[in-house]
Amino acid sequence: MADPKHHSFVFPSTDWEMVRQAAMLGTEEGRLALEQLCREYRPVIRACMSGIGYVKERLAVMDVDDLTQEFLSGDFLHRLVPQADQSRGCFRHFILHGLRLFLMSHREKLSAQKRGGGIVHENIEGHEWMPGEACNFRPLDRPWALDMFQRAARRMRQHYLRGGEIERFNELWALLWSDTSSRRVFLESSPGLKPDALTQRLHRFRVGLRECLRHEVEKTVLRDSAKERADAVDEEMTHLLDVLSKEVPPESLYGCLS
Question: Pick from 63, 138, 54, 65: which is nearest to 104 by CA?
Fold first, then answer.
């Protein structure tokens, strides 16, 4: 199975008009819009499938492409799309919710087969999408958050490289993840550099990294007005930073540039 770190977990910008058209089930316009959505979201859905522990550990013999196709062409997506509503949250959370239900159903089917060939019918009734529900499905959010962070870190490194300060970047990147004793050793080996000056450098470095992260988030968010877009970016940033701080180990963040 392909290594998930080689796939992109960045979701496409949401075209809500296309989503609304895709919800028109039974019409030619709806069919074409749904096919377009599937094409656009297939890469990131496959990446999510590849990065989920359940898939990697228990479905190692299954072709992830088949699993992705099953999700995109099955009843789950067709029956959930009409529930998508821009006022109820971002489309990424909606897709993650659908993946969550799909994998729960798939796991139940395999369990039933192991118990003796019983049949489990797909049923999403009573599982109406609620805003933020998919945000709690951390196995899907972790790879997305790490991928976004890696893109931001690469952007910032490129900025330092263009300015001829790649050594400074490497120095600050290492210090950002170091402990107090390591920073003390660095200060001792840097005559003339005061602790307050180093603290200010690291603060500016963090601010710059956060700005790069916001830039990456902005590329994934489309809204009708500037205010709606800014609000959506703020919401995504809050969620992204929460996942990074609570769900992604510091060593994974530090090692994303290796």
Answer: 54
